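Fold this complex.
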Amino acid sequence: MSRWPGDRLLYGGDVNPEQWSPQTLDEDIEAMTAAGFTFATVGVFAWALLEPEPGRYELDWLERIVDRLHGAGIVVDLATATASPPPWFTRVHPRAMPVDRQGLRLSHGSRQTWCPSSEEYRHRALALVERLAARFADHPGVVLWHVGNEFGCHNLMCFCDRSAEHFRQWLALRYGTLDTLNDAWGTTFWSQRYADWADVIPPRATTAIPNPSAELDWRRFCSDAHLEHYLAERDLLRRMSPGTPVTTNFMVGFAFSGLDYHQWAPHQDVVSNDHYLGNHLPHPYTELALSADLTRGLAGGEPWVLMEHSTSAVNWQPVNLAKEPGQLARDALSHVARGADVVGYFQWRASVAGAEKYHSAMLPHAGTQTRVYAEAADLGALLRRCAPLAGSRTLADAALVYDWPSRWSTDAEATPTQEHRYIEEVRAWYDALWRAGVTCDVIGSEQDLSGYRLLIVPSLHVVGDDAAAAIRAAAESGAQVVITYFSGTVDVRDHIRLGPYPGAFAELVGVAMEEFAPLPPGALAAMSVGPERRLPDLEREHGSVWTERGRAHQDTEVVAQFSEGPSAGSPAVTRRGVGTGSAWYVATRLSPSGLDTLVAELVREAGVEVPLPSRPAGVDVVRRRRGRHTWTFVIDHGGRGVEVPLTGTDLVSQQDCAVDDPLLVPAGGVAVIQSVVDGVGTSATGSESSQVDIA
Ligand code: GLA
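Structure:
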């Protein structure tokens, strides 16, 4: 990644000068420079201007823009502009338009109007990329290629005949023979056995519950079909523009779950993400934190790019909440704390026309004399002072396993309860860790699980044998491992693992569950604690959503059992010593207070380090480290202010502070305390040296 300026934090966002007169760019560059803007994503939706007619390309205007930005010291993330084909594309290639599950072929008029399996789209897109790469490969201002945009956001699935053919090719590679496919999909059930490959189709609208194994493979295929296109563009760029890294912006966040980013991440030279707040959630900032931790997990712990987020309101939620004063910095720093070395927004200048004219931007309609622009400029100045932390790693002793296939299969039809949503169980646990002040890596079950003191495995419904073995090994080698209900139930084909639940983990956690007994909406199941009274506070707790009927093995401690409800007498929370660690099982959705009780015990047993254990509620504390230097981020979402007894220099207020002269972070404020670890520290990056200069 020769051109990547990894020695500082970059700051900026999407710039769309094609929406404005050329003179506006002069004003923009002045306002950008004043705001510390150093990173511009250009050309994301420019295909219609770059190729106004089939095969006629106009790239000069784009080059002028890239030159101007480069001349102003702003590095460019150049989009391949293939996200949205122009209207002529529909006319010339009507069969490349996506078809929905009901068979309706869509038309242009919005964006991402293309079928991921379309050969015509592939051909036209690569022809454009070739032109762009030929023109910009050697441009000194282009530091990153940005393929497409938010793959699958609007065209995740296409049910057309070409997609059906592509799906069959994908299945033939996965299964080899039709017999193996029939076995994998369990097609003897409901007379679904296929006698001819030509009969295999995408799960189009049908009469009743679709085949769940086929549906799960379809989800995998849709993710792979988009990935195939990404790889085609990436490979062309690598060939024509070697040395410039290639990325595409993921959508790790509450609103999208369509792509299995664990499959995508290894193909990114740098992982990028777009994140928007879910303002319908009680604490959107914990969902932000979860998404950022998952993005870092996808990046294998390395720094990543926050390609887009918003300075204030978006325009696509039912009610688009404007951010409170100070929230812009809190949100951005929550990402930086969790490993983002680039902070980008959608977008630089608010549009006057089009579908997103009510979306906030760094430069609002009202201009530079605005709170949003002023806060954006303050953040730019702060990120410049934070330059020394670029490349450092976020420290985490704990990990939470996240899995897209489990999410897809859990959220499908015909499960024990539609009240159980995968992400809600994940969030319940993540939020409890957040409240406890535990920074956690959010990783895939096939990533390296060793080395964590605490490992949370929420509702890992689909699990392969290797992943199950790795989770067991983590417990055996000393971790506190928590597995929650509906985990381990099916294999990767979505076939039940015979024997007691939780299937792949039943022996590890030492329980034999016989039956799932979910609760009606809103119902609760009271609990009582086991004879050892390890966690007496659980006596006051209730489970919701899910219970199970069964028993614990003799060597398994029943920490709590259901005392009421359909599973009265069955274990609710168990613990079993395994090797030098423990395997816990939780057979219900615990309330936040129940989770707090359990997480406090887990943190204690695991010896997880919690920076600032006695901070007020709503304060996020996360630490990054490189060599002997640490940066402790303190972000007060709670709005009460917080005293920070740490020794170092706060890069926000530019004050020195000490344990006996604590820093006072004001209500709703942020601090980034740079400290030197006494003695020689272990280096999270593996490098020991780190000369820290505060610009
Ligand atoms: C994503 C897209 C942008 C824009 C924003 C709106 O980030 O990439 O083009 O649509 O969402 O929030």
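The CA atoms of residues 285 and 331 lie 7 Å apart.
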